[in-house]
Amino acid sequence: MSKPAYKRVLLKLSGEALMGDDAYGINRATIERMVADIAEVAKSGVELAVVIGGGNIFRGVAPGAQGMDRATADYMGMLATVMNALALADAMRHVGIVARVMSAIGIEQVVEPYVRPKALQYLEEGKVVIFAAGTGNPFFTTDTAAALRGSEIGAEIVLKATKVDGVYTADPKKDPSATRYESINFDEAIAKHLQVMDATAFALCRDQKLPIKVFSIVKPGALMRVVMGEDEGTLVHV
Ligand SMILES: Nc1ncnc2c1ncn2[C@@H]1O[C@H](COP(=O)(O)OP(=O)(O)OP(=O)(O)O)[C@@H](O)[C@H]1O
Ligand SMILES: O=c1ccn([C@@H]2O[C@H](COP(=O)(O)O)[C@@H](O)[C@H]2O)c(=O)[nH]1
């Protein structure tokens, strides 16, 4: 059997993808299917860290946050990612994956704080590390947290698992004529304002020479194909 293409990866899971076909929250069947995909990767020996989004529960720039102080709304968004992280870790436990949640915001009765050497130790031990609460700072996103933590842990690639199967010339949900890139460089993605990820995340990955693979978490087997280095999704590169 062929070997995985990477030793250590940072997987960014869209919070919105956790909703499945529901209007908000966590869809049980969806999270179980995602975790089954993750289990396959973990069993292949790849060291796996995960950053989970919060869009299925709360987004600081959402209509529900209108009129709120932006930083307060963003802290609510970060706390939403902690809920998703706990749900993800619990679903992993059910299938025998040992996971540790580490939060960028201090809530030690609930989850342990993010401490970089400890995260590295867990990865070396073969545990899955789930980074919760984004960067711990308002005015950022979990995509930027993925770029940041991916850089800190020396991941070889950020795998952005989302609801679309790659980076398109425009948002494919709004423009059906949009076409998918097989690969694109960071400067072009930033210059064209391609909003599949925010510019801060693209810029950090570019500066750290950390490639990103954007692919669909909804497509069966796509995560494993990405990890095996097969043709899937869009590669964003330097
Ligand atoms: N050029 C583009 N190519 C692909 N997708 C795009 C593009 N522009 C906008 N999008 C949209 O970006 C979305 C991907 O963002 P996604 O919701 O996964 O990230 P997120 O905001 O980090 O998620 P969450 O907050 O739920 O964790 C896609 O669902 C797609 O509709
Ligand atoms: O570093 C961060 C990460 C996230 N937030 C807030 O949380 C929500 C949810 O994150 P998504 O990346 O949109 O899934 C985000 O909209 C922000 O409000 C943050 O402030 N800082």
Give an overview in words.
Helix 1 packs across helix 2 and helix 4 (142-152) packs parallel to helix 6 (199-207). The longest helix is centred in the middle third of the chain and has 25 residues, at 70-94. The protein has 238 residues and is α/β, with parallel strands linked by helices. The mean pLDDT is 97. The chain is built from seven helices and nine strands, in the order E-H-E-H-E-E-H-E-H-E-E-H-H-E-H-E. The protein has helices at residues 28-43, 70-94, 116-124, 142-152, 186-191, 199-207, 222-227; strands spanning 8-13, 47-52, 99-103, 112-113, 128-132, 157-162, 183-185, 212-216, 234-237. The protein has a single domain, classed as Acetylglutamate kinase-like (Carbamate kinase, 3-Layer(aba) Sandwich). Strands 4-3-5-2-1-6-8-9-7 form a nine-stranded mixed beta sheet, with helices on both faces. The structure holds adenosine-5'-triphosphate and ligand LLZGTKA7. Pathway: Pyrimidine metabolism; CTP biosynthesis via de novo pathway; UDP from UMP (UMPK route): step 1/1. Catalyzes the reversible phosphorylation of UMP to UDP. One of its GO terms (cellular component) is cytosol.
User: What best-fitting shape do the alpha-carbon axes yield?
Assistant: globular
Question: What's the helix-strand series?
Answer: EHEHEEHEHEEHHEHE
The total count of strands amounts to 9
Rounded mean pLDDT is 97
Query: What is the CATH domain class?
Result: Alpha Beta
Alpha-beta content class: alpha/beta
Pathway: Pyrimidine metabolism; CTP biosynthesis via de novo pathway; UDP from UMP (UMPK route): step 1/1
Function: Catalyzes the reversible phosphorylation of UMP to UDP.
Enzyme class: transferase
EC number: 2.7.4.22
